[in-house]
Amino acid sequence: MRSNFKSLKDVFRSEKSFVGLRESVDSGDVIVSFHEIFPDLERVALPQSCEKKVLRLKVENPAWRNELKFMETEIVEKINKFFNEQRIIQIRFIG
């Protein structure tokens, strides 16, 4: 066996050629885990997409959209804390 063997996880996380794939996987994880992180928002907000660290949340009710806009900083911090890295920098609310 060679002594410089790397695991697939190490290669996936370190190789520059996998940057786009890593970003897609990371943003998909945010969408899939959103209601796990915020179970109280399951009936209020629906994650739509996540591109370039911007999460798009669909919120039908304008009152809830306004309330969540005030909570944007806390939501971003809680998502990033859940994943132990900066995955989201901004949230866009859509109706």
Mind explaining what this structure looks like?
The structure is a single chain. The protein has 95 residues and is an alpha+beta fold. The chain has helices at 8-14, 19-37, 62-70, 72-83; strands at residues 45-51, 54-59, 90-94. It has a three-stranded mixed beta sheet with strand order 1-2-3. Strand 1 and strand 2 (54-59) form a beta hairpin. The chain is elongated, with a radius of gyration of 16 Å.
What's the helix and strand layout?
Layout: H1 8-14, H2 19-37, E1 45-51, E2 54-59, H3 62-70, H4 72-83, E3 90-94
Parallel strand pairs: 2-3
Antiparallel strand pairs: 1-2
Give a summary of the structure in a few sentences.
This protein has 4 helices and 3 strands. By secondary structure, the chain is an alpha+beta fold. A 3-stranded mixed beta sheet has the order 1-2-3.
- Label the overall shape: elongated
Individual helix count? 4
Give me the CATH fold name.
GMP Synthetase, Chain A, domain 3
Sheet having the most strands: 3 strands, mixed
The amount of helix comes to: 40-55%
**Unreliable spans:** none
Strand arrangement, major sheet: 1-2-3
CATH superfamily: DnaA, N-terminal domain
Structural class: alpha+beta
The SSE string, one letter per element, is HHEEHHE
CATH arch. level architecture: 2-Layer Sandwich
Mean pLDDT: 89
